[in-house]
Amino acid sequence: MKYAKAIYASLIVFFLIAPLLVILPLAFTSSAFLTYPIPSFSTRWFEELVVNSVWSRAILNSLIIATATTALATVLGTLAALGLRSQDLGMKSQIRTMFLLPMVVPAVVLGVGMQSLFVRLGINSSYWSVIIAHTVVAMPFVVISVSGALTGIDRRVERAALSLGAPPWKVFSLVTLPLAMPGVLSGAALAFATSLDEVVLTLFVAGPNQRTLARQMFSTLRENISPAIAAAAFIIIVGTVLIALALMLARRRRG
Amino acid sequence: MSENFIRFQKVTKDYGTVRVVEDLDLDIARGEFVSLLGPSGSGKTTLLMMLAGFESVSGGAIVLDGQKINDLPTHKRDMGVVFQNYALFPHMTVAKNVAFPLEMRGTAKAEVASRVQKALDMVQLGHLSDRLPGQLSGGQQQRVALARALVFEPRVVLMDEPLGALDKQLREQMQLDIRDLHHRLGLTIIFVTHDQDEALTMSDRIAVFNHGQIQQCASPREVYDHPSNRFVAEFIGETNLLEGTVSAVSGETLSLTLPGGTVFQSHGLAGFRPGDKGLLSLRPERIDIYATAPEGVNCLTGEVTDTVYQGDHLRIVIETAAGRIIARINRKAAEWANGAKVTLGFRAQDGWVIAP
Ligand SMILES: Nc1ncnc2c1ncn2[C@@H]1O[C@H](COP(=O)(O)OP(=O)(O)O)[C@@H](O)[C@H]1O
Ligand SMILES: [Mg+2]
Predict the structure, then answer these.
(1) For residues B338 and A22, what is the distance between their CA atoms, to the nearest angstrom?
(2) Cβ neighbours of A156 in B, within 8 Å
(3) Kind of pairing, strands B59-64 and B6-15?
(4) Is there a domain that residue A245 lies in?
(5) Pairwise CB contact (< 8 Å): B75 & A255
(6) Which CATH number do you get for residue A102?
(7) Is A3 part of any domain?
(8) Cross-chain residue pair B54–A165, CB shorter than 8 Å
(9) How many angstroms separate the alpha carbon of residue A163 from the centre of ligand 2?
């Protein structure tokens, strides 16, 4: 039984990471094609990412957009989670559902709607349009993760702070926020990752100047299947893993 | 000493359509230790939370030191609150926890340090000031909570079942510690509990709660010996209740005639008139058991049906014409076998007649 479980778990893990195992080695191919076998190893495709302005621009765009999205989604999502915790809020579960809706609404539908909205507002094909679109889909992750952290906080601890003479804003900054911080940080990391690999909405609302890395990979796949895609994927994955590790370390230090 | 330091005047609390506290009046003097005692759900916590400012008041007024505080925000009330689960700040060290109220008041750094040290020494935790709350035992956490609630010398200290989570031995130790601090620092303490022994041990006065109303508020001795109604008599300690009719009143002594025709002389509430129904409350430990009836005490004969050994005393169940009666007798007294015919007796001042 024990072996059966272990084998089953290994198979699942293998199934999950097999695509990565297929694509990542190709980042180091010297060939001009995204195929096996790999003739010899080289870093030419990483150089391509830096030297070719299309790719380097895409990397920069992704960083700008993901950073802004993370900041915006984390602040808004945290505020939403705090509001949803308030006791005298009517229709709480309906409002919560509204906040989580972007997770289940098909991205294509969201994309069409946003595009026409942004066009009307005159901000389509700008950094703002992409950042706003990404924030909409990233915020639910922050709401969920911060709400989880907040439910773990005993209200009596906050009441105690009030009774000890702390005005409400100090209770928030000295007690509530520090205690919710692990949730805020994982929410932020999820928001960052969401923005990094968002493609569908980006297709609708970004102009040529806001091509993100994921978007660039997507179009390269269709036009000329170059191993630069694999190199870009490698960078995204390494970045994500690093963020996850940093989070884990931060958590462990907190105790 | 100023009388009526804290006044609850016709205080009411509604949650939706449910009235949890009803027209409640209570005056508390400066330096007094008052326990709120009552069954779970009787509104004790709600009253305390209204006093602390965590819950709004639906009707009536709460007055502190001459000032109506219904709408005063919690952080300006200057009350130390100790919660049942301690409610320490889990991300701050013990010293930081205790320093918190002082920092909120802008106390100078050096003074904060010395007062924190003093407060922790007072609860014998000076050596643990760098620990996090999670690294302390329940009793130690409770002491930190106490130090934190006292360090800023609040006008009032509110405690909501602060010892409920501790084991018996520690609880009794903390009871004595808190009582000692109360005497030493002259604190005004309002202490919620559902444990009657705790209330009897610690309080100057006990307010007995039921259904959001105070049934009686008096000294522990008064509440135990002279309960004002049936609820108080039954809630505090164990008692035998015998129903009868008041047949005569002379001074503080009443004559109560039981259905079987037995007449008892007993003290009781004022205001009874001959012909009124009365309920005699008779504490088990006030009953003596005799082989033959002595002179000058109320007597009733019966048959022993059960004897329970309880270490320091025996609990004896006796069937009488007036019903089943429980007596608690000293181990030095004679023991009685089941089926033994005995006479039980009590003095007039050991009984208490209340309205049925
Ligand atoms: N926030 C609330 N909403 C609705 N009812 C409440 C709330 N808090 C307490 N109650 C009700 O008020 C009554 C008194 O509660 P409480 O003051 O906690 O009693 P106690 O402390 O004496 O056990 C209970 O019936 C409880 O269910
Ligand atoms: Mg309670």
Answers:
(1) 88
(2) 83, 85, 87
(3) antiparallel
(4) yes
(5) no
(6) 1.10.3720.10
(7) no
(8) no
(9) 18
| Rounded distance between C-alpha atoms, residue B227 and residue B209, angstroms | 13
Q: How far apart are CA B269 and CA B216, in angstroms?
A: 13
B172's enclosing H/E stretch is helix B168-185
CA distance A223 to A214: 14
Contacts of A163 in chain B (CB under 8 A): 52-54, 74-75, 77, 79-81
Among the partner residues A154, A174, A178, nearest to B87 by beta-carbon distance: A154
User: Considering the entire predicted model, what is its pTM?
Assistant: 0.81
CA distance A234 to A28: 10
Number of structural domains in chain A: 1
CB proximity under 8 Å: B 102-121 to A: 104-105
Q: CB-based burial of residue A184 (10 Å sphere; 0-12 exposed, 13-18 middle, 19+ buried)?
A: buried
Instruction: Determine the residue among A163, A173, A177 to mutate to test chain B binding: the one whose Cβ has the most chain B Cβ atoms within 10 Å.
Output: A163
Inspect the interface and report whether the beta carbons of B75 and A175 lie closer than 8 Å.
no
Strand partners, B256: B246, B264
- Nearest Cα of chain A lies from the Cα of B92 at a distance, in angstroms, of 9
Query: Taking Cα atoms as reference points, which of A13, A17, A11, A36 lies closest to residue A25?
Result: A36
For atom 8 of ligand 1, the residue with the nearest CA is B46
Please indicate if any CB of chain A lies within 8 Å of the CB of B77. yes
Quote the CA–CA distance of B44 and B36 in Å, as a whole number: 6
Any CB–CB contact under 8 A between A247 and chain B? no
Residue in B105, B134, B104, B145 with CA at minimum distance from that of residue A173: B104
Per-residue pLDDT of chain B (356 residues; tens, 9 = 90+): 457 899 999 999 999 899 999 999 999 999 999 999 999 999 999 999 999 999 999 999 999 999 999 999 999 999 999 998 889 999 999 999 999 999 999 999 999 999 999 999 888 899 999 999 999 998 899 899 999 999 998 989 999 998 887 888 888 888 888 898 898 888 999 999 988 999 999 999 999 999 999 999 999 999 999 999 999 999 998 999 999 999 988 888 899 998 888 889 999 998 889 989 999 999 999 998 887 777 778 888 889 999 888 888 889 999 988 889 999 988 766 677 888 888 888 998 999 999 98
The reply to whether A223 falls in a domain is yes
Which domain, by its residues, includes A196?
53-254
Any CB–CB contact under 8 A between A177 and chain B? no
Backbone angles phi, psi at A198, to 5 degrees: -75, 125
> Could you tell me which chain A residue has the CA closest to the CA of B91?
A179
Task: Spell out which residues of chain A touch residue B83, defining contact as CB-CB under 8 Å.
Answer: 156, 159-160
Does B41 sit in the ligand 1 pocket, CB within 6 Å? yes
Residue A19 counted as domain residue: no
Distance between CA B282 and CA B303 in Å, rounded? 18
> Domains (ranges, CATH) in chain B?
6-232 (3.40.50.300), 238-354 (2.40.50.100)
Residue type at position B193: T
Interface predicted TM-score of the whole assembly (ipTM), two decimals: 0.80
